[in-house]
Amino acid sequence: MGPRAVERQVSIFLRWAYWLFNAVLVGRAHVVLNMDESPVERCIPRRRGWVVSEAHTGRCALHEGIATRESRSHVTLVAVIADMPALQPALPQTLIARDRGINRHEKGLLQHAVRPLSWLPGQNGWVTATNVGVVLARIRRAVREAIGECEVVLAWDCATQHLSEAALRSLTEEGFVPLLIPAGLTWLLQPLDTHVFADFKRGMHRLQAATRANAAGGALPAGYWIHCIEACVRDFFGRQDYATSFARNGLASSQDNLRPCIRQLVRDQPTRAARAPSQEELEQLVGRPGRMLEGPLLARARALQAERARRPAVPPVLEAAPPAGAAAGERPGAPAGRHGLRRRRLALR
Questions:
Q1: Which listed site, 10, 63, 209, 298, has its alpha carbon 20 to 30 Å from 262?
Q2: Residue 215 burial class via C-beta count within 10 angstroms: exposed 0-12, middle 13-18, buried 19 and up
Q3: Tens of pLDDT, residues 21-76
Q4: Closest listed residue to residue 168, CA positions, set 292, 83, 39
Q5: Please, are residues 262 and 29 in contact by the beta-carbon 8 Å criterion?
Q6: Residue 340, class by beta-carbon neighbours within 10 Å (0-12 exposed, 13-18 middle, 19+ buried)?
Q7: What tens digit of pLDDT does each residue of 47-57 get?
């Protein structure tokens, strides 16, 4: 992809985001999510050096203790982050493992995994057009349970399984407002790729390496790879605030805080134009000419825009302001803010 093509795709993406947040969702309670899948190795091979074991041998044994079965068993983590810190711990982080590659003990551990980690059984280790609908339903249900009804913008990439008829139908049925990240530019525009996955996998590597270094024979205990994933998911997806990463990548109503590497690509391009992308522009984003995506991708947003044109939305308050004795920092009768949610309600979760 040449520099001109990159600039064009980034500008189309930023215009689409600006239209959503400033012409469609303005005045509405909404939250922005980014979902993507990433392979997770059950046992991460070494990068530098060796695991040194002296136990039971009387001499140093240089090895890693990683069996072929452990390094090649395919596992995928479907991760999701939100621009609302209080919602992040409630979002399910779904693990999809090859069912024939895990034993009964490991399945028992996965069934009782501690939230936010959840397991999708009976799979082949990959995200497909079929199981992505199940993941979307889980996410939508978690948002409803945590903060009630609101509009949910889902930013994800142009992977084949994301643009299948089944996936697009699931987006419509669950009421998501989709926003496509351009093909080949997730490294630049997707918050999970720019701010999360690298740190998450480094944390996994450190935890596994420390465990192998202290284990006899340099091997992870049976099923311990699940505990490593569980601990890192809890640390990186249950306790972190990724709100800034959305604004820095253009997934916010204001584009004044873009990262410099994004800003320099669109310095000569008009990105603050409140209009939806055309069919031709969507084809450029996806990189697959001939795919009719304008209808399924923009139907929900255009319906909301038409509704707003008929009756201008009033910023909603989803919970009445408490009287005296309210939570610290809240003013009785104060408006709910951008997300249309009160901090007091989320603090109780």
A1: 298
A2: middle
A3: 999 999 899 999 999 999 998 766 555 555 454 444 444 444 444 454 454 468 99
A4: 292
A5: no
A6: buried
A7: 555 545 444 44
Nearest CA among 165, 177, 222 for reference residue 42: 222
Strands 117-119 and 93-97, how do they pair? parallel
Q: Which residues of the chain have pLDDT under 70?
A: 43-73, 268-271, 311-349
| Exposed e or buried b per residue across 150-177, where buried means at least 16 C-beta atoms within 10 angstroms of its C-beta | bbbbbbbbbbeebbbeebbebbeebebb
Q: Compute the distance between CA of residue 241 and CA of residue 159 in angstroms, rounded to an integer.
A: 26
3-state secondary structure of 252: coil
Strand partners, 75: 97
Coil/strand/helix, residue 229: helix
Helix, strand, coil percentages, rounded to 5, for the chain:
45, 15, 45
Do 157 and 181 contact (CB within 8 A), yes or no?
Answer: yes
* Nearest to 222, CA basis, from 109, 98, 326, 120: 109
Radius of gyration of the CA atoms of the chain, in A: 22
Contact yes or no for 109/226 (Cβ under 8 A): yes
Q: What residue has token string 């530019």?
A: 185
pTM for the structure as a whole: 0.81
Contact 207, 57 (CB under 8 A): no
| Cα distance between residue 155 and residue 149, in whole Å | 19
Residue the block writes with tokens 């916010």:
252
Residue (of 181, 203, 172) closest to 262 by Cα position: 181
Return the ∠ at Cα 255 (arms to 291 and 82), rounded to 5°.
Answer: 70
Structural domains for the chain:
3-314 (3.30.420.10), 316-349 (no CATH)
